[in-house]
Amino acid sequence: MISSLNSPATDALELDADDAKPSRSQIKREHLALQSLAEQLLALPRRLLEELSFSELTRVAINETARIKDQRALRRHYKRIANCLARENTEPLQALLAQREAQARAATARQHEVERWRERLIEEGDEALAELISAYPEVDRQQLRSLVRAAQRDAERGRPEAPRRLFRQLRTLLDAHQQ
Questions:
Q1: In a domain, 13, yes or no
Q2: Contact 110, 178 (CB under 8 A)
Q3: Cβ distance 81 to 58 under 8 Å?
């Protein structure tokens, strides 16, 4: 009778049951991911938090965060919110965070493009200006040319005013062209 309990078939069932539940390491990784999600959630503006649908328990935990000042208590509170999020559907939150991250990356890329154009215009002058005009034909050529000349003079003197004006003009041009 005892030998039937230790049969290979019983051992296989036990192994299958063990495979079904996640390992302790996996559970820890998932919980840390939820804590990170909780921190990102609490960094969102209040108006975006109100658009997300969470249970009353989660909403209360989120609202309590504002009064917590101690860092250790805040860490514990992140864990509490992570536990609440474990019972919630976090897909809308993750989609919102991904969208905001994509917007931030796009804004950074746009900023870098404006900086590259400004540097090229100051360093290369007319060659870069001709390329910019061919790429963006709607630009006011005379105004841009005068801004480039002033930015070149101010860059030589170490003054930031004209390069900043050129940057603002380029940003306006690229933003208008992108829309």
A1: no
A2: yes
A3: yes
Mean pLDDT, the chain, rounded, equals 87
- CA dist list (Å): 101 to 105, 107, 135, 168: 6, 10, 28, 24
Same domain? 114 vs 73: no
Q: Find the CATH number of the domain harbouring 118.
A: 1.10.60.30
Gyration radius (Cα) of the chain, Å: 29
pTM above 0.90? no
Residue 105, C-beta contacts closer than 8 angstroms, at least 6 positions apart: none
User: What proportions of the chain, in percent to the nearest 5, are helix, strand and coil?
Assistant: 85, 0, 15
Residue 97 lies in a domain: no
72 and 41 both lie in a single domain: yes
Q: For the chain, what is the domain count?
A: 2
Residues 56 and 107 in one domain: no
Question: Per-residue pLDDT for the chain (179 aa), expressed as one digit of tens each?
Answer: 454 455 555 555 555 555 678 899 998 999 999 999 999 999 999 898 888 889 999 999 999 998 999 999 999 999 999 999 999 998 999 999 999 999 999 999 999 999 999 999 999 888 999 998 888 888 888 999 999 999 999 888 888 888 999 999 999 988 887 77
Which range of residues forms the domain containing residue 30? 23-89
